[in-house]
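Class prep. Write one:
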Amino acid sequence: MNGRRGTTTRVFAGHRFHIGTDAAFRVAQDLHLQRFLPEMAPARRCGQHTTIRVHHNTDLFRDRMDRLADAPWTKVVPFRGEPYLLSRVGAVCWWRPDPVSHLPADHLYAKDPRGQLHIVLHPGTDRGERYVLRVIREVVLRCAEHRGWAAFHAAAGAVAGHGVLIAGPSGAGKTTVLTALAAHHGADLIGSDRVLVTEGATSVVGVPLSVRIAGGTLSTLGPVQGLPSGRLLPTDFGAVRKASCTPQDFSRAFGARVRESAPLRLVVLPRLSDDDQQVSGTLLCPHTARSALAGVCCTPHDEDWLRPWFADRVRPAGELARGADGLMDLLVARVPVMALTAGVHSSHLLERIADVVTRRLA
């Protein structure tokens, strides 16, 4: 799989990625990655690197699809709701979208004998530049667990350099709290939806994911240049359909920056409700806090990344679970954990959420 290409190096969560892209696609790919790159406070390097080659070539795509048409395959679902067919052709592993699924049949993933990862795109692929981030995210998660870090279903921001982990299940209000801190206290964005806590529970580190914002939060916020419009989104509490923006777009909308890491100073567990209950924060005892965090810990079992895919898991799941348990014990022993309750129909919602959180930080 050769061709004229340029290689750039990008670092996410301390892991170095060498990304080779065909000349015709290089600008689009680099611009997309730039919108996810941290601007400050890089995480400690892991000392490892991963090579990814992005091929944007009609003839190559058709040739590989023809070769795979008659190859034996096994159906796998490495990411929730996204089935692929895994085939081994010689020493190369190939993944192609299951043709009976909703996935577009315009891309292929491959892993060669040297461990290099490949993405083969048809030039007509819609937003083909986004596929490389799927690979990067999964490698970041595998690398983090190997380092003794744990992933949480969480967002995170930094207020004056102090890291705030905002953890909870889908619909709990994580992005609402993150938006409140950014809008009213200029919080830097660290991560959205998945956040890593380092060994010893000392710091939070972001995973490069888009920020998804509910229509209700956008309507409460009002028009902000650079953020998606919420006019066509449902504003009902708990609505599944949300707007999406890159980390850079989200941060710049509030005059903040994308920060990769920060010392962990506070954990917030949002508990928003569909009423006008006033905003309040309550510190939890270690036992209650530990139980709540266990419910949103994604190491070693993640509800979205269902199985290792592009990067092998080098430590057994049982060992990873014990490590995550120990990390959570340390976390609740050294970092305050606050349950934040609020009704989404209460007045000045975002401003009051931000005030309750920053008072606790102080």
About this structure: The chain has nine helices and 18 strands. The longest strand covers residues 261-273. The mean pLDDT is 94.
